[in-house]
Amino acid sequence: MVRSTLQLLHLSVLCVVSSAFIFSSGRHQLHLPSKVRLFQPQALYASSKDRSKKGVIGKNIQKSPIYNVNFRKTGTFPYASKFSISQLAQVLDYELSLEPWFTTGQVNPVYFSKDFIAIDIDGKEYDGIGEYATGMYNQYDQYTSKAQIISCEQSDTNTITVTSRISGHKHSTIGRMEKMVELKAYLQYTFFRICPKSGLIMSQVDRA
Could you say which residues of the chain have pLDDT below 70? Predict the structure, then answer.
């Protein structure tokens, strides 16, 4: 009798949990319909064979995560077209809380269109998510730079706006000299433009 009661209780708990798909990380809690089966958000990594073909940046190759990211997974998010913009904003908020790639370059490429373009806060253009990721890793000192995500919300019909607090150090070229300069913490506004057909991020513009 006791065992039967426990089995029924366990079954009831499973039914309640399966009625919604929930991620929880600190202040972030993501609720999605049960019919939407989403993989655990995390960067997708290449095999060791793929990694051996990647390039090298400076002395930080052992600490650089971007050469482990499998950019062949670009645009492969299986439920992008089924998500509303507000749901995608929740997913990106959760992703960025785990890995704020605005300074590290450690993006999850599945959310980005293969035709993705970006313009950073200095007005530099990037063609493709791989080029953007490499650019962010090169720009920011990986030991001191941080991007604190403040909010990630739908702000227009096909736009998601991310507000982040950027601090640390950044490479700067003055004339022919390149040096590391300390950043006075500032707010950065990132505008993701979402393709209405694919549901993927097709462009990004950063502004102060």
Answer: 1-67
